[in-house]
Design a protein that fits this description.
single chain; 159 residues; alpha/beta; seven-stranded mixed β-sheet; 9 strands
């Protein structure tokens, strides 16, 4: 499996992703799945600047990601797939549950209606329903901001 990390993080590409996860995973490419970013060359340029020169970054809409998931997973390079929200990751999981077996919650920050579960994970009631559905459908969901931190399983997260 070459897509080694499926992460939900509303900041998408930043230091924790590039250095914290990218180095230990020896990531050579990042797939950033976000419909808005896919339409904005300005935002894409900003994210490109945050990625080391030896790491490729692919910008995809949700529909493009569904169409290309198997191709990216067959890439011999090590990669990571990022979404900014749970709904996008759920759509990808629904399309390819065999490929997306583990989902990392890396950063879902405060917004109105969300409750703090961890210092870097805030969830609203619909988020919790979606996470439980993903787990029921076979995804192993954990929260972990960095690989050196302990992973928090979904049951513990939602207590």
């Amino acid at each position: 499996m070459t897509l080694r990390l499926f992460r939900v993080d509303d900041r998408l590409v930043h230091g924790q992703v590039v250095i914290g996860w990218g180095r230990p995973l020896a990531a050579q490419f990042i797939v950033l799945v976000d419909d808005e970013v896919r339409q904005s060359s300005w935002e894409q340029d900003l994210y490109r600047m945050a990625v080391p020169g030896d790491v490729a970054i692919v910008f995809a809409s949700t529909a493009e990601a569904v169409a290309h998931l198997a191709e990216w997973n067959a890439d011999p390079r090590s990669g990571m797939l990022l979404t900014a929200d749970l709904a996008t990751m759920a759509t990808l999981h629904d399309a390819a549950p065999v490929l997306i077996r583990e989902i990392n919650l890396g950063g879902l920050h405060h917004r109105p209606g969300r409750v703090e579960r961890l210092r870097y994970v805030y969830l609203a009631a619909p988020d919790e329903v979606l996470l439980r559905r993903l787990a029921h459908d076979g995804a192993h969901v954990t929260a972990q901001d960095l690989p050196t931190a302990a992973a928090v399983d979904l049951d513990t997260l939602l207590r």
